[in-house]
Design goal:
The chain is mostly helical and 110 residues long. The chain is built from 6 helices and 2 strands. The protein has a two-stranded antiparallel ribbon. The longest helix has 12 residues.
């Protein structure tokens, strides 16, 4: 079954054994190995997806994107005028921010 194959592949990428994934997901003994011949339950699949930092859609074969979107709170839209950008703890002056924007966009119009 695809769920078993994808779990095995992703566990290898994450440098984890299937037993370790199984234990961290708090599943019964050899639950993941049983996926070779029968479909996993949605709760078990969700638990494994959480351990492997992926989605159930990836494990089910509905998508090939196994990496979850980043939840990095240090990211901001450079065009957001309401965000205060800083460098070494000090706000970047608007005139410098304008230069930075132009350099990053490679745009000579600003």
């Amino acid at each position: 079954m695809i769920e078993f194959d994808r779990t095995k592949k992703l566990a290898k990428i994450r440098k984890m054994s299937l037993r370790e994934v199984n234990d961290k997901a708090q599943l019964g003994t050899n639950t993941i190995y049983n996926w070779k011949s029968k479909k996993p339950g949605s709760d078990a699949l969700a638990a494994v997806a959480k351990v492997l930092n992926t989605t159930t859609d990836y494990l089910k074969g509905l998508t090939d994107d196994y990496v979850l979107p980043s939840k990095d709170s240090n990211q901001a839209d450079l065009d957001d005028d309401d965000t205060i950008f800083t460098f070494q703890g000090r706000p970047i002056p608007p005139e410098d921010l304008k230069i930075i924007r132009r350099l990053l966009k490679n745009d000579d119009d600003e």
